[in-house]
Amino acid sequence: MYTFPHKDILSTKQFSRVDLENIFDTAWEMEKYLSWAKKWKPLEWYIMASMFYEPSTRTRLSFETAMLKLWGWVITVSEKWNSSLSKWETIEDNAKIISIYADIIVMRHPEAYSVEKTANATTKPVINAWDWPHQHPTQALLDMYTILKEKGRLDNLKITIVWDLKYGRTTHSLVFLLWLFDDIEFTFISPLELMMPEKVTDFLKSKNIKYKEISNYKKWICWADVLYVTRIQKERFTDLSEYGRIKDNYILDLETLWDNKDITIMHPLPRVNEVKEEVTNLPNTAFFRQAENWVPIRMALLYLLIWK
Ligand code: CP
Fold first, then answer.
1. Where residue 91 sits, what CATH number does that domain have?
2. Which residues line the pocket of ligand 1, CB cutoff 6 A?
3. Do 129 and 160 share a domain, yes or no?
4. pLDDT, tens digit, for every residue of 203-239?
5. Checking phi first, is residue 163 left (phi over 0); if not, alpha (psi -120 to 50) or beta?
6. Do 152 and 107 share a structural domain?
7. Alpha carbon separation from 202 to 160, 163, 186, 210 (Å, rounded)
């Protein structure tokens, strides 16, 4: 029998293929549970601390919804200035105090490895909801779950990831999970300024996973089973004129897509102008079906971490 082997969820690199299969099976059970009469109350009396020190709509609200759907409770801090971290309390002391009140901690923070420090300071489970320059593992899990539901498989896939591959960290986390499956091939399309970082491409080389990098995208963009689009992250540019030069040259429209009706188009959201509305309305565009998967995946993670 499988037992979830992890205390925390900090990085996509911690998972095996068996872990992923069990997380997705549990998420599927959660989807069924959401449509029942709600007699099962697995997390009744458990408290989740929702600590978001960087802005979030989807991750925070879907975690909080997931906990409430499992009959747990939520306590929250939504701004650094609103917590004692603004009075120079250490991450470690902060973690020890929060874990006196809460049974599980979900945390987003603007420093890499800050969530790991929190996890090391407490015996309670901790989930990384994005330590910004590092990883967004739960986004990658729900992206994988979406691919599984849309395509019916996770092996033998061509995945094209486009636009902001430098700052769009969800793409790095996704690559670090997908390589676990067989016959995966990546195409990375971006402006030269926003190419996939070497830490990702070096990782793929070390695992012998095929990938190619392209900046002139018109010919190649549809050569895929899944097209994963990202927003060009204006807030990360120190030189806004560079952002201005790039943003209007990388937009997905119907002409770019030619006529590939089998391609599944995904986006982690939020989006700005990188995809035309004519694409959003296609039946194979899965942005909002992808968003529906946020709650069951996060229910599965909360349940597995507390009940393992
Ligand atoms: N995709 C994502 O992490 O969205 P939020 O920033 O709104 O949580």
1. 3.40.50.1370
2. 56-59, 139, 268-269
3. no
4. 999 999 999 998 877 777 888 999 999 999 888 888 8
5. left
6. no
7. 18, 20, 13, 12
